[in-house]
Amino acid sequence: MPIRKVGVRGIGAYTPPKVVTNFDLEKIVETSDEWIFTRTGIRERRIAEPDMATSDLSYMASKIALDSANLTPGDLDLIIVATVTPDMFFPATACILQDKLGATCPGFDLSAGCSGLIYALSVGAQFIANGMYDNILVVGGETLSKIIDWQDRSTCVLFGDAASAVILGPVDTGGFRSFVLGADGGGGKLLELPAGGSRLPASYETISQRLHFIKMNGRDVFKFAVRVMEEASLEAIDKAGLTLKDIDLFIPHQANIRIIESAAERLNVPKDKFFVNLDRYGNTSSASVGLALYEAFWEGKIQKGSKILMVGFGAGLTWGACVLEW
Ligand code: ACO
Hints:
Layout: E1 6-14, E2 19-21, H1 22-26, H2 33-40, E3 44-46, H3 54-68, E4 78-82, H4 93-101, E5 107-110, H5 116-129, E6 136-143, H6 153-156, E7 161-170, E8 175-183, E9 191-192, H7 204-208, E10 215-216, H8 218-239, E11 249-252, H9 257-267, H10 278-281, H11 288-298, E12 307-314, E13 318-325
Parallel strand pairs: 4-5, 4-6, 11-12
Antiparallel strand pairs: 1-7, 2-3, 6-7, 8-13, 9-10, 12-13
Helix pairs in contact: 3-4, 8-9
């Protein structure tokens, strides 16, 4: 089978209109704008309305991505949705999205926490590289507001809702030059949603113990994140046959400005080479890297030939990085 170069043909993102600021959160839990901003860099986040699910945000982002690629839903060969907040266990959010778009291709979901988009891009890229498919829609979509414990100040201030979408296709020049994926299931307990699955099905007890919400050991996740951001970035750059100096733009997972700054320091890369928009959106998990890529593109930070390093980490624990030549 042929090995083809795979690149980005189109990109889209969508955030729900409702803005929730740190000051709004001061009215819900015992916190302050000052604490949230100095510890995380976040000022506000977007929150979906109660009747909005992940497929709704994903649909909006996908339409923009399809338009930018000059494709129609009928042109799609596969849909992959990376999410930890699917509309429901089944059917897959990718199938719900396929129906909303009016596409006819296969689709499936992928769960890799905040590394989800990079995992999904790497999976989609295989189908194109080996010649099986031509046009693949990869979505990172999350409505984290639905699984946040709004009584837990240590987590509810961190997350937001968004979707981002990327159309992958064969390209003649540039494209993805490397992928690095990693997982450490032993660290899974550091960041989990304990109940609602086959281990702890929904019951009065699980609900009264608030086990259907995100639980996180923030300090340990922080240490893990700083380490893997550096290691995965270096590995992906090396695999691409490049050096740190060749990278024009770093697009890190947007979880915490202190994690991004620590990674920049450890890599000895100027901080302004790292794109940051977490101040406006918080941590949007699978959507985060794609939302940053989309905004960086529209802010003119990406040109033809730009070499971009995307890197993420998240629940699993997982991590992923890739080098993309635009
Ligand atoms: N407002 C005010 N005080 C708070 C808040 C809040 N919102 N949250 C916690 N505190 C308090 C704590 O209770 C603690 O008080 P104490 O010292 O009296 O016990 C104090 O602030 C310090 O708490 P720490 O947890 O030590 O604060 P830290 O500096 O570690 O920052 C944070 C916490 C922001 C969560 C940080 O650890 C972090 O960003 N970790 C990484 C999280 C992350 O990236 N998660 C996403 C992973 S990706 C995915 O897949 C979803």
